[in-house]
Amino acid sequence: MATVLSRALKLPGKKSHDPREYDPLTQADSDESEDDLVINIQQNGIQNGKGTRGASRDHDSDIEGMPKRVQQRAVDNKQDGLSTTGALEPELKPPSSLISYVRTTVFLLTVVVSMVMVLVCAFLIPCPMNGQHNVWTLHVGHDTELSSPLELFDVNKDGVPDILLTFLSSRICGPQDGLKQPPCLSVLSGNSGRVLWSRATPEHLQSIQCGQLVIKPEQNDTCLLTGKYKLLSLIAASSGGTLWNMSLDNVSSGRIAAPAVILPDLDDDFTNDLLVLTYKQISTEGIGSLPDLGFLLISGRTGKPLGGIVKYSIMGEGKLLGPQAYYTSQGAIYILFGFGNIQAVALRDIYAEAKIGGNFPSALQRIDPDWEKRRSVNRSKVINVYSAGVKFLQTVPVYLGNFSDLLVTTKEAVTLVRGQDLEQRWSISLNNIYSHPQPGYFNSDGNLDFLIQIQSNATEKKVIVIDGATSELLWEWETSWHEHEKDTKALSLLTADGKSVFIFWGEEAVVDNSSVSSVLDLFIS
């Protein structure tokens, strides 16, 4: 205020007051003068270093004459974005429209992608099937008889294994060649139990093997059917259509003795090949009938033979065993077979005697010295593995090993034999075992356990599960038994938690007021 009054009292024509002279009015109150200067600057502004009153002083002299507080405030105002022209009011920067557009676009894209992922998961991931039960009851009628074998395979690709089994029924497949009950192969849905497809078979089946022969690299939906006489056929699992049939002329004399053995690729066509054991009785004077066994290699892609039949003369009494392919720790392949005993012959020997020609395929390049030294003194090509009294023979993969053990079932016991040196691991005494022990994972130790069915009496059976590592009893159950079960065997199915579901048959007759029906129950433990 003092500065303003001092400037107002100056007369016209009088020299300007020198700011260096002492003026009591201007120096009366320094604080007040500084505040007034600030107000004056805010009202008039500074343009190009000069005041709005048109003072002739340059910019540098004005700045030097200002108090330090004023100088500091002017700098701060410039840093804050205030305009140096005009009234020094704040200049508001408009928000960037590009940033807002980008943020909105990213948000909308995130929402759209999330919705698409939810919809894709909802359509691709199947919902859990409700109403599934652990016991199946199949009513097949009084004119239908169940025949072995039984196989599990996901035919319709819904993630649930379906059931392939054979019936003796004219109602399902119609009459055939005058047979009252022709054999009929049917597939039951694992979810609903409905029939997916059915087809007649030329003869009774002894084996159904699905998913093991891969004709095309992208699919394995094939099933290999082995009949009880001369049938060997490959069909499509999805429809039941025939892919190839082995010619009956290949087994002109005798019959197919056992299910076909699936081997590695022997003819370089990128498809596993097969081994078939043929059997017939030969009558000799003074000795009687002798078994005549022959091995025949079959192409898995075409069903045509690879060379001729290779025959071996063996001795033994009892049930025909095998053939089964055994892989040693050295990678050598031996075929196990016998009559009440277990004998072995190298697959490379069969291949060589079939006179296929050429060098051995890569799968037959290796030999195992531990097995080769077990040949007899006369260097016979047949190796003795186990003594007489054998009813069933199975190969069992070893946990964390590259070889298999042998599970031998006799009339009185079940014995696990070590595959490397053929020494006994354990043995358990059991009588009246009427079917193959079924391997599966009952506990969580990683070793295969075994479900065994024992005939208790004429109407009952006992089902037990023993530990594969120690032979200890893990589980047992009693149910009814029927004579038709002699030719059936149990199955096992590996679940997501690393354990197995064991499946076996029980049979009983149910009588009602209308008719007598055969009821077949599929038990799952």
UniProtKB/TrEMBL annotation:
Membrane topology, as annotated: Single-pass membrane protein
Subcellular location: Membrane
Domain of life from the UniProt record: Eukaryota
Listed transmembrane segments: 106-125
First and last residue of the signal peptide: none
Keywords tagged on the record: Membrane, Transmembrane, Transmembrane helix
Region called Disordered, residue ranges: 1-89
Matches recorded under InterPro entries: Beta-prop_FAM234A_B, FAM234, Quinoprotein_ADH-like_sf
Sequence ranges of Basic and acidic residues compositional bias: 55-67
GO cellular component terms given for this protein: membrane
Entry protein name: FAM234A/B beta-propeller domain-containing protein
